[in-house]
Amino acid sequence: MDSLSVSEPAAAKNASVPGVARLSLVHKTGQRRVLPSGASNASKHVISIVTVLFLLVLWAVTTQQGWIKPLFLPAPEAIGNAISQAINGDLDGEPLWVHLATSLLRIMGAFALAVVLGVPLGLAMGMNRVIRGIFDPLIEFYRPLPPLAYLPLMIIWFGIGETSKVLLIFLACFAPVVLAARSGVLSASRDQINAARSMGAGRVQVLLYVVLPAALPEILVGLRIGMGVGWTTLVAAEMIAAHAGIGQMVLNASNFLRTDVVMMGILLIGIFAGLFEFGIRWLERVLVPWKGKV
Description:
about 0% strand; MetI-like fold; mainly alpha; about 75% helix; globular
């Protein structure tokens, strides 16, 4: 008799317990039915595409029927005309690519600085209680503050040049990156660290080969959050006497009630923020392929 078979009385008894019944079924059949991940992802993408198409159609129908005034919701054709004007430089005297490049340089510079400084500081805070005691109160104090609250200080301390703009975005991105790296250190179990030390690994080797791989999923999540916060701070940063930038273009358009230009700026910011989000998700699949599978 096969050692995995179950007698009839025992099977009847186990049938009353759902977990045992499923286990017995797996032992009998030798295989488990699992929903293919590809089919699940495909259905999710189909639902997302249908939702976006439905909203676009609803937007077009609403504006064409005149249910909402163009001042509050411009038609898609008006957005297209605004994009054409922006490309030709008819809005603010600068072509659209100049506004895009200026905003991208500001946010990418601030985000890169936040990563270079925030990840090592977060790892150090997670591994050393003295460093955590020094920096934790400072970061937790300013983290909940909206960027507009310390925007006047940036202008007073650093003027109206590029430094204050980049620094404002940097501070918005910095806190999520640091806290994610600090939280990621806790993902490395004490057994893993002790096992590495018992094999002669030093502090640097433990950090590079045990702590950092364990913390990497949390760090990448922190990068996603930090990039999102950085994009939300972009408009506030470009309020500081900016001559170019998507946020500056949106603010100028709002002063003249150009809702079509405002909507165009919002769509451009959303598109580029989405591209960066998908890029970091791709990094997650490449750098931490085990995430969600163990």
